[in-house]
Amino acid sequence: MKPFIYLDHAATSWPKPPEVLQAMQKAMEEAAANPGRGSHQMAVKASRVLFEGRKVLSQLFQVRNQNDIIFTYNTTEALNLAIKGLLQPGDRVVATMVEHNSVRRPLEYLKRVAGVQVDYIPVNGQGQLDMAKLKAALEQRPKLVVSTHSSNLLGSLLPIAEIGELARRYGAVFLVDAAQSAGCLEIDVSAMNIDLLAFPGHKGLLGPQGTGGLYISPTVELEPLLHGGTGSQSEEKEQPTIRPDRYEAGTPNTPGIAGLKAGVDQVLKLTPRRIYEHEWELTQRIMEGLQSIAEIRILGPEAGQPRTGIVSFVSTERDSSEIAFKLDREYGIAVRAGMHCTPLAHEAVDTLQTGAVRISVGANNTHEEADAVIDAVREICSKLS
């Protein structure tokens, strides 16, 4: 049996730091009560877990008031809260062609049921946004501009600070999907003019599944996605008006948030800059190796250009799913093949019919593992030929 090599960090990071597992166990043992629902000592400890989690996230994203950080169960919930909580019938939205379905599907739903108008700005083959078309779309005065920070297929980086400045100039709310950037790219919500930032806990922040969040600027008010108990203003028939309670109905994932806090601690210790540099070095190594295989076409930015830890490719000779299957079963290497929940991005790079194989590295991957996947892909292509 070959050692297992995990190269699917764009979906979920693994393995988690031991500090994450320890923090979750400690929360289950010592802070397993409902936060904000009682004054006994275990409930107070649970509330402290949430407080500390918001504190480190505020530090990571340069958020001034930690109560503007809302905990969700994933980026998808955060994006749904942002989109459905803001838009009204007839509003206009500008998004990009590299958005994940967690953005596109809520927008298409509101387009169908509420007449929301949606403009998708194209990208070129390297995943770079057409800024001229973005500016033209902004002339229509949209209520919301949505952009992923990094494509989950191409690894390309979008100019968030520049888009944020344009959105502010045209009076639009700016929502950023940080599913592929939180933890490996430096994010300053104020400097980048970000009004809404959706992020996962289980990817680059090294926390467990079932965690994520949404930063909501103090200048933005959203309608809650969920309604129910919060432990505050319980005498009122409507949701509380105070943050974060207004947006956090129901019992939270306290053990998960304890793990998320521990994961963010590790990110802050390593620093997003150093994590990015390590992952970029690995992607360049993988790209250089794959480029020597004649039938392989690499998607996204060219070698030497900025990208997150994602290298996606297609073969001119064989099916992407077959390559991914053989990598797993014959070489013990975990990657992902298919549409990656981003069909518009596949359309932009002409892979809608074939899908692609996605290799995604993380902070703990090594040069030896990068070389192993190169050798495995080369051998698979040789054998199948």
Describe the structure.
This protein is an alpha/beta fold. The chain has helices at residues 18-30, 41-61, 75-86, 101-114, 131-138, 160-169, 254-270, 272-290, 320-331, 343-348, 367-384, and strands at residues 5-6, 69-72, 92-96, 117-121, 144-148, 173-177, 196-200, 212-216, 296-298, 310-315, 333-334, 336-338, 356-360. Strands 2-8-7-6-5-3-4 form a seven-stranded mixed sheet, sandwiched between helices. The protein has a four-stranded antiparallel sheet with strand order 9-10-13-12, with helices on one face. Helix 6 (160-169) links the parallel strand 5 and strand 6. Helix 2 packs parallel to helix 7 (254-270), helix 3 (75-86) runs parallel beside helix 4 and helix 8 packs parallel to helix 11. The chain starts with a strand and ends with a helix. The mean pLDDT is 95.
Please outline the helices and strands.
Blueprint (H helix, E strand, L loop, with lengths): L4 E2 L11 H13 L10 H21 L7 E4 L2 H12 L5 E5 L4 H14 L2 E5 L9 H8 L5 E5 L11 H10 L3 E5 L18 E5 L11 E5 L37 H17 L1 H19 L5 E3 L11 E6 L4 H12 L1 E2 L1 E3 L4 H6 L7 E5 L6 H18 L1
Helix pairs in contact: 1-7, 2-7, 3-4, 8-11, 9-11
Give a quick rundown of the structure.
The protein has eleven helices and 13 strands.
Number of helices: 11
Overall average residue pLDDT: 95
Helix/strand order: EHHEHEHEHEHEEEHHEEHEEHEH
Order the strands across the largest sheet as they lie in space: 2-8-7-6-5-3-4
Shape: globular
Largest sheet: 7 strands, mixed
Q: What is the percent of helical residues?
A: 25-40%
Name the poorly predicted regions. none
Please report the distance between the alpha carbons of the first and last residues: 25 Å
Beta content comes to 5-15%
Query: SS-based structural class?
Result: alpha/beta
Number of strands: 13
Task: Please state the CA-atom Rg, rounded to the nearest Å.
Answer: 21 Å
